[in-house]
Structures are given as structure tokens and as C-alpha cells.
Amino acid sequence: MAYIIAGLGNPGQEYDNTRHNTGRIILQSLVDDEFSFSKKNNALVSEMKIGKEKIKLIAPETFMNNSGKSIATVVKSIKAAEKLVVIYDDFNLPMGKIRISFNRSSGGHNGVESIIKAVKTEAFLRIRIGVAPETAKGTAKVPHGDEKIEKFILGKFKVDEVKVLKKTAKTVAEALEVLVKEGKEKAMSVYNAG
To answer: Are strands 53-60 and 36-38 parallel, antiparallel or unpaired?
Structure first.
């Protein structure tokens, strides 16, 4: 059973380069090949290899809140969900930081909530990507109130943030390599430390 890597975001040009599309941006940086639209999955799909493992890449073409509908077309069982890796934005983490977790709640992220409902389990991997400005103490400067949060996550990345995101994409690619070749525990111990 192959790994499936999903990058969350919203379809449409108006969402390109927005913080909420971080998962999609990172996913699309993993391969040189173009993604093609799959009607069956209602998603952009591609493939890559890590070592000898064939990996399926999927970017749902649904809106964030319905990501699960797309994912459920490729993750057909609770067992298959164990090899699902979902990449998405987290405004509680400073820009450039990543966190890998397994079998956790959605943490209030609508895309992840939708996937949990659709695949009927929380037992899948997540790679959360920090999108918040960093405070002097190294913590995330989190927006407060629904309106401010929405404005922030649907806002576009600034030029200097795009540079950080490119570095983060390289880190995610390395983390995925460790995850596939050496397992999730090893990946978590290496990449959740920093």
C-alpha cells in the first residue's frame, strides 16, 4: 500500500500564494511534473518516488472545508489512512517551523476536520506548516478573533515569507524522505525538535 500525500488549500487563482494554501504550495514544490486534474478524485494528482516507494500526490479541488470528499476517493479504509500524510497551514506555529503528528484531533482546522469525518479516523499523519510571524521570543504572533484570523490566513505571502516557504518546502521534502524510509517516529524525533 503506497503513501498518499495531500496538500490542502482552496482552488482558484484568487487563493494562489495565500497562507491557507500552504499545503498545496508545498505539495506542488515536491515534483517537477505537472499535476493533472482527476475527475474521479476531484483533485489535482501527480506521482513521485521516495526510494523504491511510489507516492501518490493529491491536492483536492474542493474548498478547504470539503477536502475530505476528495481524500476519501483515494483513502478507502482505516488501514490505508495510516499511510496518508496531510500537509496544511498552522497559524499557531511561526513561519518556517514544521510539526509532524499522528492520530491527533483537527486542532480546529476545517480541512483536517473534513478529512477525519470522511476517512472515519484520526489515525493519519499531518505535517503542519507554520505561517505566523515570529515574536522576539520565537513564538507565533497569533491573530485573535474570527475576522482577523480569516483575513490573515486568506492573505497573500509577502516576498520575504515566500523565501522562508521555499526553505520550508525543502525541509518538508527531507522529512518525507525520513518518514517513508525510516518511519514516522524517526521523522517526528528529528523534525519536531527544532
So the answer is: unpaired
Q: Which residues of 156-186 are buried (b: 16+ CB within 10 A; e: fewer)?
A: ebeeebeebbeebbebbeebbebbbeeebee
Tens digits of residue pLDDT in 72-99: 999 999 999 999 999 999 999 999 999 9
- Please state the CATH superfamily assignment of the domain spanning residues 3-191 in this structure: Peptidyl-tRNA hydrolase (3.40.50.1470)
Catalytic residues: 20
Cell digits of residue 117 = 469525518
| Cα separations in angstroms, 165 against 11, 29, 32, 170 | 19, 10, 17, 9
- Whether the model clears a pTM of 0.85, i.e. scores above it, the answer is yes
